[in-house]
Amino acid sequence: MAQQLRIVLSPASAFGEAGAQLAAIIRARIEERCPARVTDGPAELTFTLALDPQIAAEGFRIEDGDIGVRVSGSDRLGLLAGVGKLLRTSRYPASGFQPSAWRGESAPQCAIRGIYFASHFHNWYQVAPAPELERYVEDLALWGINTVAAIFPFINLDGWDDPESEPSLQQTRRLLQAGKRLGLRTCLLVGNTLFHNTPQALRAAPVDDPRGRRGNSGAPVCPHHPAGNALLQDCYRRLFAGLADLEIDYLCVWPYDEGGCGCQQCAPWGANGLLKVTRELAALAHTHFPDMRVILSTWMFDTPPEGEWEGLTRALAAGDHGIDYLMAASHEDFPRYPLEHGVPGGLPLLDFPEISMWGLAPWGGFGATPLPARHQRLWQQAKDHLAGGFAYSEGIYEDINKALISQFYWDRKTTAAATLREYIAYEYAPEAIAPLSRMIALIESSHTRAAQQAEVNPDQVRTALALARQVDGQLPAWARRGWRWRILFLRAVLDHERHQGGGLAAPEARAALRELVALFHAAPVDDGPDPYHQRVRPPLPP
Q: How confident is the model at residue 527 (pLDDT cuts 50, 70, 90)?
């Protein structure tokens, strides 16, 4: 057990400003959890941080040092992931700091390990203060995430003169800059949707959506309409110029929901109009980001079947398409086409795990949404075909799911259960692994039954709440006060009130919802800052 810790950079000249940043990250995580302190003077334990290019790309090694523990990374990202592993597998008792016993070498199996921060609807990503955003991106980088993605929320705004446009642009910049300051890569999502005051004459025809899965949100324009396409080009030329200093690494072109066009000239969208948008927006982006790579999303292709996958295969077979990665995703199971017929163009395949919306509305409105069994099942469907992906996030309420996805990308053979145990031990307490694993399984079962419109088992919600209260009385103070525990505890409270108690108007439910509104920086009243805010605001009754 150590009371005094020292951090040594070996050699210090190899790190520059990044060394001080990494030392600050370690210090903050240790000192907020236990009485041990990081010092520049004599210490009982030394962490030596080193760079070793012999380690596989973005990998790390943890081994015994001369007077402590040595963490080596192949590069800055590998060192961040190694420090994260060290911190998560160490222990923080009230008597001091107990260093990790984990030793070994590890490197990621997927090249792109991303999170898409959907910064719109005045959700947490759009309104959280910069220090909270930066801290959260640090936490994800410690789990091995290497890319952050964001979007400029055209859907919220009435043109560049809207008073919210400049703040929205600055928040998009903050998200991307939070990744850049750590050495992470960045991605910008784009499409053919523009400001919601776009003239009706320029708008796209609604896409065919008999299953109600593609969405027709926002104000997409038709890229084959000359004036509409000119407006699309002008808006993105201005957006790219406003982000030019950030060196965007990836451009991801999105097909549906906020995008798409069902007119005859654009159909089938995924093999026609979307490719026109991709070519033209990529050409614009490359004027500012010459080394940027292009990701084409196939989200909700062929729902309903209209030849999009086959048409895309033919189009990419011709070559010279300028697309570097293909992304495949849906609301439910992984799309079968690329698994059964191969990836069009032979491109590396990415996924887009839906960790935020599934089975519950408002999204995150009742607290944490851990779904380990669901994500394990979906990962099994495509894991051997993937080069990585971006988890789709609308807020911090699915933090557990982000950890699960990050470790799937790191090691295709890992399990959700193993990651969950590591998460619980680090973010709550090692003694909480058994009760919280059970509690989370009960929450997921109730979540799944409600999503399937089946009756929720009353014993499960009662047991989950009892476990939450049991653990709450046993956690260390830092964990009990932390937002990660509060959103999980409040989920057990609200599930009980929704399914077995007095409903959302009950005093305990109202108190829980008020706390969530504050944690998520949501609008305090129903008539919030935009018409889409209700999708992400806890449903606090008036």
A: low
Q: Which of 154, 292, 309 is nearest to 220 (CA)?
A: 154
Give the C-alpha separation, 404 to 72, whole Å.
Answer: 24
Neighbours of 332 (CB within 10 A): 11
pTM: 0.97
- Domain 112-414 CATH assignment equals 3.20.20.80: yes
By C-alpha distance, which of 181, 178, 179, 157 is closest to 169?
A: 157
Cross-strand pairs, 194: 219
Cβ-defined contacts of 514-518 (< 8 Å, 24+): 514/540, 515/486, 515/490, 516/364, 516/365, 516/366, 516/367, 516/487, 516/490
- ∠ CA 110-340-376 to the nearest 5 degrees? 45
Cα-Cα-Cα-Cα dihedral sign, residues 13, 15, 17, 22: negative
**Domain 4-106 part of CATH 3.30.379.10:** yes
Span 104-144, pLDDT tens digits: 999 999 999 999 999 989 999 999 999 999 999 999 999 99
Is the preceding omega at residue 11 within 30 degrees of 0, hence cis?
Answer: yes
Looking at residue 141, its amino acid is A
> Using an 8 Å Cβ cutoff, are 112 and 147 in contact?
yes
**Peptide bond preceding 539: is omega within 30 degrees of 0, i.e. cis?**
no
Contact 298, 326 (CB under 8 A): yes
Residues 292-307 pLDDT 10s: 999 999 999 999 999 9
Domain boundaries, the chain: 4-106, 112-414, 424-535
Q: Where are the beta strands (DSSP E) in 175-262?
A: 185-190, 193-194, 219-220, 250-253
CA dist 498 and 293 (Å) reads 46
What is the bridge-based pairing of β-strands 219-220 and 250-253?
A: unpaired
